[in-house]
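Lecture 7, part B: from sequences to assemblies.

Below are the input chains for today's worked example.
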Amino acid sequence: MVMKKRLDNGFNGFSNWTVPRGPRSLRKKVHRKKDFEDGQICAIELLASLAGKLLQDGESTACSNTSDGDHSVIGTNVVKEERSSEEKAFKVECCDGGSSQSCDLDLEKTDQKQNLNKLQYVDNNTVLDCTSVVVNSNSSDEACGDVKPVIHKSEFEDYSTKPEEDSPDFLETTDTGMNIVNEEHEAKGFGIGFQKITDSHNSKDLKKSYGKLSTMVNSSFKTKLPLSTDAIRSSFSRYRNYLKLASRDDDEKFRSNKSSIHSNTYRPPSRIAGRRIRKLLNSKHWKVAPKLKDCEVARSESIGEEARNPFRKRKLYFNSERYQDSLYKRRRFFDRSSMVNSDGGMSSESVTNSPEKSVHIDKSSLAAILHGASVQPSSGQQASFLSKDAHVKFSIRSFKVPELFIDVPENATVGSLKKIVLEAVTAILKDGLHVGVLVHGKKVRDDNRTLLQTGLTCKDNLDTVGFTLEPNLVHNTTPALCSEDPPQILACDMTELPPSSPVNPVSSSVILDVALPNNSLTNSQNQDENKHELITTSIDKLPDNSLQDCKALVPVPEMTMEALAAVPLNPKSKRSEVIQRRTRRPFSVSEVEALVQAVEELGTGRWRDVKFRAFENADHRTYVDLKDKWKTLVHTARISPQQRRGEPVPQELLDRVLAAHAYWSQHQAKQHGSKHLQAGVVKAIEGSSS
DNA sequence: CTTAGGG
DNA sequence: CCCTAAG
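Predicted structure of the full complex, as structure tokens:
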């Protein structure tokens, strides 16, 4: 219980401070005492012991500077309240946190080389995790310290340099309680540098006084936070190669892979240990990365449809899904973007799955015409802003390649298509790009306006700012331009374009003018007050580096903690690009058939069983999906055929649905599986349908 | 993790 | 489909 106490202390401190809280669903878990305690404690013990060993080993090496900062001291204090052997371990970690980066690296090396042997009871993964933990801790702590400005960058670099770090995904707790996620994996996967900083919950107070308190908080976290992410990272990196190879197929396939891989590769020596760690991971997330939702911490590409189950997600990543997922999400992102520009006929949903669709081949359009460029803050957080005093920093994560409308004959070769596309892209670049700035979806024209005047200060609408890349075909920057300019879509950072946005411009060029102002493509929600006072101007210069590649740029690595802190988080806005919902996959008649069949046999209260029975191999259908489908089926069956939409379901099936539904409603779906019951259902069904 | 429901 | 509350 000592541990518990300690935890409590830590948490209390935390809560007083910033109470990052995860989605309720997640939070809920945290409160499950049993799980919580067990997981935490066990994991902590494990960590503690590991940490202890690491300390011993590393003491002589890099970690000697255990207490160089306030934070470390504080951390120690916090720990002091406890009096168990674990205490030391914790201290260690805290101390580690205080150590310098170089320390991190050294430590890691050391660990891998030396400690590995000593910690035999843990498998390599675990060891790595620990190591990573240390590293992360450092980062976190540094954040606490005064090195902020550099920290982020440093981390970035560190990770990049690590040979194995392919897709580190780490969370950070900053002084202000912000969480940052860097998604290099994504970047690498695409060959694009990509850095993501997710939000921040900044609270001035905190900001000012992140000192001990924050430190303390961090300290308490240390043990938890890093592990999860690092664990992932390490394990992922380990199998990265393999994963990559195995992650090309479609969802189902790779899911399968992941499963198998997971079971084979990432498995701590002892199951129990694994479980503990897992639990730890989970709970950890709740606390450390609270606000996953809001902060989109791991969310970006990491948390997808399984966001609700962090661990699961992790698992996926361990097994390569991460990579895959990134691609997938990115694809979706693009698709959605293009949707906005498209002349219609494209719905995000329909496009979602095919990356190729990013390039529109519109037969009706003129050949290879570049309609416009659009920039989208990828993953919502594309533009991260930092405002420190008079400075506002914009971090443009990437620019979306302007949508291209290409007209090619059906018999054109892929090669020719590529060429055309290349030419189109090249043309854009060659002609020069013009950067547009949008605030609240409205183009800002007045170049002389200051950011302050424009409202682009930290607490103002940074999250409503968007940049667009416009082909400089039409040179100018005149006001009129707005309407003439090739379309620019901008995607304001945080929000995503409403899928079903009313905007339905025939030509993209019109989109902006018409659509944005009124129904924002992006931040409609935020438009509220400032709508009327939008200012326009254009900035001709953006971080060039970012513009160069149309593909996606990755500029501004310099996010600092402060930046984060400064970044106002608009609770309302959702950086959806990353959060995208799963692609819609209408049930086919055969699927419905299978579902009906299964429900007839199992009843309506055993979706998991139904899943296994009828959709065992359809990983994209979760039991929740099935349940939902059933729900809709019942509804569908009750409404008139005229009101039904989508692929028509045979009336026969609908009848069965109603019958089964009625039957199981009556029987409360109690003990089932018995044949007679099943027979009863069938019988009842038959009766009803005839 | 599953269920059950609301959105 | 998503999100949550509840087992």
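Note for the exam: Residues 23-25, 28, 305, 308, 581-582, 584-585, 624-625, 628 of chain A lie near DNA strand C (CB under 10 Å from a C1'). Keep this in mind when comparing with the next example.
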